[in-house]
Amino acid sequence: MIKQKINFIKRQSKTKLITAIILFAFLILSFFFTDFIETSLKLRESSSIHQVSNEIIESSNFKVTYIDVGQGNTCYIKFPDGKTMIIDGGNVEYSQKVASVLEADGVTKIDYLIASHADSDHIAGLNYILDKYEVKNIYRPFQIAGTGTNLDNFEVYEDEDLSEVYYYLNEITDNKSKISRVTTSVYKRFISNIYSEYYCEDDIYYKSTVTVFYDGLKVVGENYSFEFFAPLVMDENINLSEFSNTEGYATIGYGTTNSNDNSAIILVNCEDNTFLFTGDASWTSNIYEGEANSGKEEIDFVNSLTEEERQLFKNVSVYLLGHHGSSYSSGESLLELIDANFFVVSVEENSSYGHPNSDTLARITKYKKFDDYLLMTKDNGNITFGLVDNNLVYCLEKSENTSRISISWFMLGTILYIFVIFFMFSIRVKPQKKQSY
Q1: Going by C-beta distance under 8 Å and a sequence separation of 6 or more, which residues neighbour residue 365?
Q2: What confidence tens digit (pLDDT) does each residue in 190-229 have?
Q3: Interatomic CA distance for residues 181 and 118, integer angstroms
Q4: Do the Cβ atoms of 95 and 89 come closer than 8 Å?
Q5: pTM of the entire predicted model
Q6: 373-383: per-residue pLDDT in tens?
Q7: Of the residues 183, 370, 377, 410, which has the maximum number of CB atoms within 10 A of its CB?
Q8: What's the CA gap between 149 and 391, in Å, rounded?
Q9: The domain at 52-398 falls in which architecture?
């Protein structure tokens, strides 16, 4: 009888040990499916239900990545038809980081390149992109590259395709003092690059199309579109292609040295999700207020919208805060118009400009819809939005939320395993006695 009991205990222990090993193997295996398990069990609801892993965001055929370029701006967009867009390039020291994002996504050609305005923290890195990649369509601001310290001695840069336009407008209009003049070497190099850019298709090289962006310019693709709503056109009767190799129209300026308010205001739409970019456009006068009619491109844009156009801006999915969160951008009239779901700030840690401004952040809190409404590159690194199962989600390069989310299944799974093993080994089954008849 004792021997029988010993054999039974041995068999019972062996069975429990094998069961424990199998359960442990399943536990380890389940950690490779953490995202699926957490989503299925809705463990993420305690944190951000919109944040997903990089693996999940990669399954989206539409992606918008706000690249962390410090105190600058760069956005990479991949459309459903495989076409690619770059909006701004940040400062030159971040060029390799921008290129690494493109390389990781297998980019070999840029279909749309947009320089929102001439400031170096937006265009310097574009020179690197133009050197490294073939670019098919280029969108530039109506800002004239040249040399000279004032209007009287300003000379248009020899590679500037809009020289004839500039001198013509100076003669026939009163806008001489409002046309933006840029004398930086970075912008002059950018102008040289865009007019010498070629791309190859079917073994044939074509000259890249250069267009000055303007209110009303729209490009429609497969299940997506992007449209410019500013700057406003100066004169619809003056088509730039009549004077140059550049398409588009001359746009209204806000002072010869005011680069910010020549910014492109762009609405990108994909499957009813909209992304708004306003460059460094201002809603109120700033350091240029000594010049006549300075600033206020942002508010002029809002006031110029028709009722039909205003409907396009209702419930914007993601708004990149203008001018890195400056107090001079993202005014109340714009925020009320767009009623955005998410706000992104492209800014460096401990910004010397004090970006993002506390007043600006206070303004946007009135319109927050989710706990995770505000995302900053200085905290989160690259920020990528995508569509997964028709839902807008995002992935962060670095985040405290990520570590908190990823450990939740680890903790729960481990606790369940310990509980099951403890319960299993604490129960002792007595061997049944043979009944005698």
Answers
A1: none
A2: 999 999 999 999 999 999 999 999 999 999 998 999 999 9
A3: 10
A4: yes
A5: 0.81
A6: 999 999 999 99
A7: 377
A8: 52
A9: 4-Layer Sandwich (3.60)
**C-beta atoms surrounding 192 within 10 Å:** 17
Token reading at 122:
């937006």
SS3 letters for the chain? CHHHHHHHHHHHHHHHHHHHHHHHHHHHHHHHHHHHHHHHCCHHHHCCCCECCHHHHCCCCCEEEECCCCCCCCEEEECCCCCEEEECCCCHHHHHHHHHHHHHCCCCEEEEEECCCCCHHHHHHHHHHHHHCEEEEEEECCEEEEECCCCCCCEECCCCCCHHHHHHHHHHCCCHHHCEEECCHHHHHHHHHHCCCEEEECCEEEECEEEECCCCCEEECCCEEEEEEECCECCCCCEHHHCCCCEEECECCCCCCCCHHHCCEEEEEECCEEEEECCCCCCCCCCCCCCCCCCCHHHHHHHHCCHHHHHHCCCCCEEECHHHHCCCCCCHHHHHHHCCCEEEECCCCCCCCCCCCHHHHHHHHHHCCCCCCEEEHHHHCCEEEEEECCEEEEEECCCHHHHHHHHHHHHHHHHHHHHHHHHHHHCCCCCCCCCCC
List the chain domain ranges.
1-51+400-432, 52-398
